[in-house]
Amino acid sequence: MAKKSKKNKNTANNVNIVLPESLSAEEMKNILVEAMLEVEQRKAELANTENENDLKEWRKSLGIKDYSADKKIRFRKIKQMCNTIYAFFKLSFLPKSQIKGDRATIGLLKFFLCAIFDMAKIILTLCSICLIAFIPLQYFIQSLTPLSISKNIFVFCFAFMLFMLSRFFRIASIEIDRIDDKNFLFGVFASITSIVSIIIAVVSIFYKGV
């Protein structure tokens, strides 16, 4: 009996799919690709709906209200400010049972990453401004020795490169603020910390050698 049941299971699992003879391999490949794309699209839609529902529950638990329908702008701003203060106070003492998801973790990751990118943006922008300002100021300040034309061109190109790099850090900060993928944020944070640790190790080795 056991052998018969095993045979029945095997025959039940093996499903013969009969394809029309006119169907070519290229058409079959296109059908499979379209089916996979449709499955991925449905997964993305389900993920978006789940995120929207989680956000609604989170806002509801904090008591955040929408005053966009209020026509009086002054009263609307006052209500929004009071509601924000109330939500922040409620967030500080939110019970453990009402804390769901990983919004706080993602928020902290976004905050630290945006702070790092914004700091790099500000430093690189200031350095580029100082280098560009140095080119005309060297001819007016007597304590500075004027550089040659080739060196001035090199300084200007280096300053322009720093400015463009600062713009990339600005774009990266905006992109990080819009990303909600926890795995991607952890990957970026781990990459930045590893790069910073390598730089610190190289600098410490250099100073020890000096």
Pick out its properties:
210 residues, mainly alpha, 2 domains, 6 helices, 78% helix, extended
General description of the model:
The protein has about 210 residues and is mainly α. It has two domains: about 25-90, no CATH class; about 105-210, no CATH class. The protein is built from six helices and no strands. The chain has helices spanning about 1-15, 25-60, 75-90, 105-135, 150-180, 180-210. Helix 4 packs across helix 6 (about 180-210).
SSE topology:
Layout: H1 2-13, H2 25-62, H3 73-92, H4 103-137, H5 149-178, H6 182-209
Helix pairs in contact: 4-5, 4-6
- What level of helicity do the residues show? over 70%
Q: Which value, in Å, is the CA radius of gyration? A: 30 Å
Order of helices and strands: HHHHHH
**Main sheet specs:** none
Q: How many distinct folded domains?
A: 2
**Strand percent estimate:** under 5%
Number of strands: 0
Tally of helical segments: 6
Q: Roughly what is the average pLDDT, rounded to an integer?
A: 80
Q: What does the overall shape look like?
A: extended
Helical/strand content category: mainly alpha
Amino-to-carboxy terminus distance: 84 Å
Q: Which residues form runs of ≥5 with pLDDT under 50? A: none
